[in-house]
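FAQ: What does the model actually see?

It sees only this:
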Amino acid sequence: QVQLVESGGGLVQPGGSLRLSCAASGSIGSINAMGWYRQAPGKQRELVARITNGGTTNYADSVKGRFTISRDNAKNTVNLQMNSLKPEDTAVYYCNLYKLGKNYWGQGTQVTVSS
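And it is asked to produce this:
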C-alpha cells in the first residue's frame, strides 16, 4: 500500500502564494512520477504539474511561470510552490504518485483564492 499525506492548503488573496507538500510512505518502491492534480466544482480533475524520478517536469499551460514543482527523492516528498495565485486556481488539490502502471492519490487539500 501507498499512503500520501498532503499539507499546505488554505485561503489566500489573489496574487498571493501557497506551498503544498506531499509525503509518500508505504510500499514506495520504484516511483515513476509524482505530481499534483486539481478539481474545481463541476469540473474534471486535471493535471497541474508532475515530476518524474529523473527530474523531468511538465506543467499545465495555465500555471506555467507561476507554479514550481520540486521533489526530494530521499524523503519521498513532492512540493508545489504556487505564486501569483488567481481565483481560477481555486480547487481541491490532490497529490499523485504513479508507479508500475498504477495511480495513487492523497485525500486532497482545499486551495481557495479569494479576496
